[in-house]
Automatic annotation (TrEMBL):
This is Transcriptional regulator, LuxR family. The lineage of its organism: Bacteria, Pseudomonadati, Pseudomonadota, Gammaproteobacteria, Cellvibrionales. Pfam families: GerE (PF00196), Response_reg (PF00072). CDD domains: LuxR_C_like, REC_NarL-like. It comes from Aequoribacter fuscus. One of its GO terms (molecular function) is DNA binding. Keywords: DNA-binding, Phosphoprotein. PROSITE patterns: HTH_LUXR_2, RESPONSE_REGULATORY. One of its GO terms (biological process) is regulation of DNA-templated transcription.
Length: 220
């Protein structure tokens, strides 16, 4: 008998452990796995054949905004994603849903809300977030096209793209990934082709469209 699996992708062990505890009580027949960064997320996703659900932190190491969500949804469309974040900005929530997340949970949510959302998503419901309204600004088509292009990147190309946005040069990226600079140049050519751009600057601007809106600070 194949064991169904839920993956929690979050780099904060305390939060990941707390969510894992909730899920173990709620779904005792599921295996709960964790991944602290995008590289680990990709490896688990490609290894596990019965992945029922992904809970994905917005600010994952190795991701540019929603790039990890876009990549996962494009490569594993049958597995629903619940995006989790402390950033509940309405535009952030809207982007998450437009990029393919089934639901959005803020990290301040209580146990009952988390359980309700997880069960609803596992039963096929989508577009779930209590504060999302029809007035939330829709994501621009150009940005959605960029998200679709991200989904076509290989895991290694996604790493290169993330480092590109961080401002690293080809030589630096090659050093970090322990490959030849020529390999990075080849990846860059493919990344720009898939994004439909013709320079590193244009690639960075396109990828930056996947950044999340930051919540406004409240005046004291």
């Amino acid at each position: 008998m194949t064991i169904k699996t839920i993956l929690i992708a979050d780099d904060h062990p305390l939060f990941s452990g707390a969510i894992g505890g909730i899920l173990k009580d709620l779904l005792p027949d599921h295996q709960i796995l964790s991944a602290p960064d995008v590289d680990s997320l990709q490896k688990v996703a490609e290894r596990e054949t019965e992945l029922s659900l992904l809970l994905l932190d917005l600010n994952m190491p190795g991701a540019v905004g929603f790039s990890a969500l876009s990549w996962f949804v494009g490569n594993f469309p049958a597995t629903p994603v619940i995006m989790i974040s402390a950033n509940g900005h309405s535009t952030t929530v809207r982007k998450a849903l437009d990029f393919g997340a089934a639901a959005f949970i803020e990290k301040s949510a209580d146990k009952a809300t988390i359980e309700q959302c997880v069960l609803a998503v596992l039963h096929g419901e989508t577009g779930l977030h209590p504060n999302l309204t029809i007035s939330s600004r829709p994501t621009q088509l150009e940005t959605i096209d960029t998200a679709a292009a991200i989904a076509s990147l290989t895991p290694q190309q996604l790493k290169v793209a993330s480092m590109l946005v961080e401002g690293l040069l080809n030589k630096q990226i090659a050093y970090e990934l322990n490959v030849k600079e020529a390999t990075i140049k080849a990846h860059m050519t493919e990344i720009m082709r898939k994004l439909g751009v013709f320079s590193r600057t244009q690639a960075v601007l396109a990828l930056s469209q996947l950044a999340a809106e930051q919540p406004q600070e409240h005046a004291p």
